[in-house]
Amino acid sequence: RYRKAEVRFQKRFGDSIRWLELELEEKQKLVREMARIAERYGINLYSCCQPELVGEGVKRGSCVDYPHMASIFGEVVPAPRKSPTRAGCCCYESIDIGMYDTCLHDCVYCYANQDYRRALKRYRAHRPESPSLLPGEHQFSEYKGSNRIPSRYCQPKLIP
Predict the structure, then answer these.
(1) For residue 55, what are the β-bridge partners?
(2) CB within 8 A of 119, min separation 6: which ones?
(3) Residue stretches of the chain with pLDDT short of 70
């Protein structure tokens, strides 16, 4: 569960929403049913950071899966190292190109937005013609080579 999402639900719905805490057996039963439905529609189902849910119809997955991305886009950057964020995580090192509080959809379950007014302000500051996704006057070159973004991930290397 994401605490930020819980706070948003509480603000919007008060006590009319209750969070269910499922026991492991209940979770596994639910996931088996989801796997059955996914198979019917040709959807691959993955579980990240929850190896206890991996089984028939559910593969172990990762949010940032370099081998999968390389199979789609080719190896346009050197293979990153594994960089798990918590127990059971299989993710690879990555750079998040997004920014919190930038989406105007205001979905109550979203963990990436907390403040709609801040999102609106950042949306208005965005410049589609800029080479940077960062709002305002920021330029990507300010970050190139800095300790925030390893140079191997800088834009020119991502585009063949």
Answers:
(1) 58
(2) 101, 102, 103, 104, 106, 113
(3) 96-97, 131-160
